[in-house]
Amino acid sequence: MAVYSMTGYASAQYGSSVPPVEAAPKPSPGGRLGLEVRSVNSRFLDLAFRLPEELRHVEPALRERVNARLKRGKVELRLALEGDAGAALAEPTARLLQRLNAVQDSVRSWLPSAAPLSVAEVLRLAGTESASAQSWTDAQVLELADQVLTGLLEARAREGARLGAMLLERIADLRALAQQALPLIPMLVEQQRQRFLGRWKDTMALTDGATLPEAARDRALTEATAFAIRIDVAEELTRLNSHFDEIERLIGKGGEIGKRLDFLIQELHREANTLGSKSATLEMTRISVDMKVLIEQMREQVQNIE
Asked: Closest Cα to residue 144, out of 59, 58, 18, 264?
């Protein structure tokens, strides 16, 4: 199954790219039915419909279509009745001109400074009126919606594939950083051990051969052990690798993985922070910072995955 982004766009017009529905009346040359849908990221499925009043009754069926095919995202679906640029110029009727004149007088009574309608505006409104008069059936509208939703899913799948590839690249970089951190811990523990032995020898030299109290030696050993425990990040590296494996598995599986990926990114960030807090060298600090930069890049992209 593919990885889907929540970002996408698709549009179509009835008659140019969609075959007419059988047994449905074909539209006359006076206008076209256009539909576009766009989506961006959101925690849930948030739908907004922009429909002409003549087709407002189709909204429940359109909502059902969208709910059946999309799971997350802020989705806006806009349906418009468009004039045909290739058709003959629509001549406004006397009734339409009368209506426009009445509306204009009403507006200018409240807004005296409003400009009067131009000839171009009157012709444009006449074309809109002609397009609105078309007898579009529910079947035509829903067929157009099916095509546009298919286009949107294809666009979201293409974007999702790019996001998945980017996440896998970042995981590979994080694995390389984890491998760099792995040999640093035994080296640091050994350095501390040698430092402890050196200080112990210096202390013995200052006592002129006298025996140190047993409590002093035990305390020194305890501090050395506590340091080794404090800088040990083996557990964090193990959890990081486990999260890497799970992210790769989810991307390979596809489907609705956005929320799970978001949780795993939070866990990666927590482990990288712990790694930095246990840092005893500049090299380990650098590795922790580089990890957090990569994880933040992943977080931004995971927000777009369905």
From this structure: 18
Q: Contact 171/264 with Cβ under 8 angstroms?
A: no
- The answer, yes or no, to whether residue 17 has pLDDT greater than 70, is no
For 14, 177, 244, 304, the CA distances from 174, given in Å and listed in that order, are: 49, 5, 8, 21
CB distance 143 to 212 below 8 Å: no
Q: How many CA atoms lie within 13 A of 276 on its CB side?
A: 14
- Residue 27 DSSP symbol: P
Residue with tokens 């052990």: 225
Integer Cα distance of 274 and 92 in angstroms: 74
Residue 80 pLDDT class (50, 70, 90 cuts): confident
Q: How confident is the model at residue 126 (pLDDT cuts 50, 70, 90)?
A: low
- Vertex 17: Cα angle to 64 and 305 (nearest 5): 50
Query: Dihedral sign, CA of 144, 150, 152, 155?
Result: negative
Q: What confidence tens digit (pLDDT) does each residue in 154-204 have?
A: 999 999 999 999 999 999 999 999 998 887 777 766 666 666 666 666 666
pTM of the entire predicted model: 0.68
β-bridge pairing 31-40 and 73-83: antiparallel
Domain-by-domain residue ranges, the chain?
159-302
Query: Can you tell me whether residue 233 is helix, strand or coil?
Result: coil
Class of domain 159-302: mainly alpha
Compute the mean pLDDT over every residue in the chain, rounded to the nearest whole number. Answer: 80
CA–CA gap between residue 71 and residue 255 (Å, rounded): 10
